[in-house]
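Complex record, two chains
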Amino acid sequence: MNTDTANNDLIEETAARWVMRLDRGDLSAREQREFDHWLEVASRHRGAFIGAQAHWLDFDRVTALAAGSAVPMRVRPMQYLRAAALVAVFFAGVLALLSASQHFLGGRETTGLGEIRRLTLEDGSTVALNTSSVVQVMFDRHERRIVLRRGEASFRVAHDQNRPFVVEARDVSVRALGTAFITRLRPQSVAVTVTEGVVEVVRNPERARAGEPVQSRRLERNQAVVVTGDSNPIAASNLSPNEVARRLAWQEGWLVFEGELLDHAVVEVNRYSSVPVVLDAPWLGEKSFVGVFRIGDTRAFARAAAAAYGVRVVEEGGALHLME
Amino acid sequence: MDRGEHVRWFAREVLPHEADVRRWLLRRIRGLPDCHIDEIVQEAYARLWAVGAERILNPRGYFFVTARHVVGEVLRRSRVVSIETMADIETLNIIDQDVGPERRLSGREEIERMGRVLTTLPPKCREAFELRKFEELSQRQIAQRMQVSESTVEKHLVKALRMVKQAMNDTTTAGQSLAGKAHEYRHGKQ
C-alpha cells in the first residue's frame, strides 16, 4: 500500500468514525474540539465527512425500499426543493443588494458584455439583467412599467394588487401581479418564460389601450411563448422544471446545455464574450451538445466542443474557429 | 436551510451522481488510482457543500464541473501520476455522454446490492447495521441487545458504513450491468 492509498484510507476511516460518533449522540467539549480541528485541517476531510454522512442517511431510503414500503422518495421532495431553492435565491439576492446600498432605480439600467446584474426596485421586486441588456423602469401610482430595450431580463415581482407589473418588449407586453418570469428580446421575436405564478402576454398593447382587439395569452408556471413579428397566434409550450432551471442558470453564472444543437449553443456562448466561437465546419452545427460552463469561459466551451466531435480549435482574428 | 436539511439535500441531489462522476474520471484519465478518485470526490464535496444548496440549480452539472476543476489540483500534488496523464487532464472536458443521461440504479438493484454486501460483513457487524438501519434501534439499545459496549457497536457500524458505501458507489459492476440495458435506467428529470 503506497502512502497516498494509506492516507486516503485513514481519511475515509476517520470520516466514517465521526459520522458514527455523531450518530451515537452529542459530542463532549473535547471531542467537539477534536472534530472541528480535523475538519479544519484539510478541505478533503470536510468532503469525506459530508459524503459519508450523506451515504449513511441515504441507506435509510434503500432499507425503506427493502422493507416493502416501496416509496419513491426522490420524485416529490426534489421538485419541492427546486421551488424552495428559487425562493431562496431570490431572498439572498434582495438581502445582498439591500445591504450593499439602498438601490432605488430611476430610469435606465444597463449591463455590458458578459455582465450580469441584479437590481432591487423600489417596490421590492427584483430584476436580474443578463449580458448586454437595457431596461427602463417607469413606475407611477397606477402601474409598474418596465421596458426591455435590449437583451434579456428575469423578474421576480412583489405582490401589489393595485399596481400591475408590466414588462414591455417591442410589441409585446407581459402583465403580472405577483410572479416570476424571464423576458428575452431576440432579433425576430420576444421570448417569455414563466417560472412562478401567472402572467398575461399581450401583443400590440398600444392598440389594446386604444380599445382595439389584440391577441393575448395567459401563461402559467413552467410555460413559455415565443412571440414573432407576424400575426400568427401566440402558442405556448410546456417546459419541464429542469428546462426552466436551465433557462435560469445564467443568473448563477452558468451556461447549461442539455442536448441543444451546437449552432444554438454557440449563439448562447457568444452572447457573453468578445471572442466569439465560429463553426467553420457546417455539419458541426447540427450536432447536439451537452456541457456546463462558467459564463464567459468561451475557450473551455470551444475545447469541449472540439474534443466532443474530433475537430480543432484555431484562434484567429479575434475568434475561436472550430475546424476539421 | 439548516444542517440536517442540507445533508438530506446532498443525499438526494448530489450522491446519486457520484458513481457517474467516478466512472467518468476512470474512463477519461488513464491509470488514475482509486485513492485519487476518492480524493477528487472529497474535494468536490467540500466545495459543493460550501457553495450551499440554494445556489446550485443543476447539481449534476455542478458536480461534474467541480470535479473537473479539482482534478488538476489533486493530481499535481500527487507524485505517482505520469506526464501522459497530466497531458490528458489538460484536454479533460465534460462532453455529451459524460453529463448526459443518468445511469441511476433502480430501487431493486440498490436493494440487491446492499443485500449482497451485507452478506460479506462479519456477523456482528452485519447484526449491528441491521439493528440500526432496519430496526431503527439507537446505538445504546443495540449495545444492550448485543451485550457489548457502545464503542464496539460504533466500530461495527463504522465498518458497515464504509463497506456499504463502497458497494453502492462501485463503478465497475454498475457499468457492466448497466451497459447492456442502458435504456432501462435513463431517467429524465421531468
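Note: Chain A touches chain B through 75 residues (CB under 8 Å).
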